[in-house]
Write a structure and sequence with these properties.
By secondary structure, the chain is α/β, with parallel strands linked by helices. Helices cover 33% and strands 31% of the residues. Helix 4 packs parallel to helix 5, helix 5 runs antiparallel to helix 9 and helix 7 packs across helix 9.
């Protein structure tokens, strides 16, 4: 089967990794990289022995699929041009700056029969993939995502930069509408919100307590999920999972004992897995794990959280 002609639009810090993965994969024929910084584009192009261009007009006629890895404010315009040209799109998160833009991109992808996948990378973390059959009916979820400040994510607040990863995962595993949001957040290092805590109440009764900070001294990405008879801990960073279930015996009168299993996964390459999945969806006409609807759902919740936080400033 012929490989898919691919390109990466935006080859800054993250985009260069996209380009390297496409260059490695046998199902991809990486044609070019595109960036308005000619020196940056040429540097990556020379490394991978491909072409460098500085405009979509020069790029789009020669490719089938693209990764879009540019600042969030440019997502909508570039993705729209690609979809109108009939190109499959892997669009980095957050999907767009408004829900209306996200809905338009979804409609364009449907109209032109293009795969539209959103780059919520944590969905391809082996720790969360291993729990697909375990996480069924969460009752309470607690997540912490903490990182040192990084200027390359500062074009958006901490909700859209970091917390949206956990919002996406939580919305996926709870699979119920959000009925109430309580949010607190403050600016610490930037002019926008750098630390936030959010309580999400779902229609099915589940509650999620979500914390994100980009003012930490070290990185931490953890989630705990409580179900009727199971407690699951996930360490995204170290690829570790703990599954703790009620046993048949008692540790105290009337209190069940706990049977635990600990699992540790190889570090793997989530970005490579994400891009492999994108290409597989194109080849086999499959629905992406994180499609446009999922991206828009996470974006909608993140925007609503931001609105509430801005009202309390």
């Amino acid at each position: 089967m012929a490989s898919i002609k691919t390109a990466v639009i935006g080859v800054g810090y993250l985009g260069k990794f996209h380009a390297q993965k496409y260059a490695e994969l046998p199902s991809s024929d990486l044609i070019a990289v595109c960036d308005n910084n000619v020196d940056t584009a040429n540097s990556i192009a020379n490394e991978l022995d491909i072409n460098a261009v500085d405009s979509l007009a020069l790029l789009l006629p020669d490719v089938d699929a693209v990764s879009i890895v540019v600042p969030t404010q440019l997502h909508y315009d570039i993705a729209k041009q690609c979809l109108l040209a009939g190109k499959h799109v892997l669009l980095e998160k957050p999907m767009t700056t408004t829900l209306e833009q996200a809905k338009e991109l979804i409609a364009l992808a449907n109209e032109h029969q293009c795969v539209l996948q959103i780059g919520h990378l944590e969905r391809f973390n082996p720790a969360i993939l291993a729990l697909e059959d375990t996480l069924q009916q969460p009752l309470f979820i607690e997540s912490h995502r903490i990182a040192p400040f990084n200027p390359r994510g500062a074009d958006v607040n901490v909700i859209l930069d970091l917390m949206i990863h956990d919002i996406d995962i939580i919305l996926d595993i709870v699979n119920s509408d959000v009925t109430d949001i309580d949010a607190k957040g403050v600016a610490v290092l930037s002019k926008d919100i750098d630390i936030a805590n959010v309580r999400l109440q779902f229609e099915n009764g589940c509650v999620a307590n979500v914390t994100a900070s980009r003012a930490g001294m070290k990185s931490e990405r953890k989630m705990r999920v409580f179900q009727h008879d199971t407690y699951v801990s996930v360490d995204f960073q170290n690829k570790k999972v703990g599954i703790h279930r009620k046993g048949d015996g008692e540790q105290f009168p009337g209190v069940a004992n706990i049977e635990s299993q600990e699992h540790e996964f190889e570090q793997g390459d989530a970005l490579k897995s994400e891009i492999e999945s994108f290409l597989d969806c194109i080849t086999n006409k499959k629905k992406p794990k994180v499609d446009g609807q999922s991206g828009a759902r996470a974006l909608h919740t993140a925007i609503e959280i931001t609105r509430l936080l801005n009202e309390t400033k």
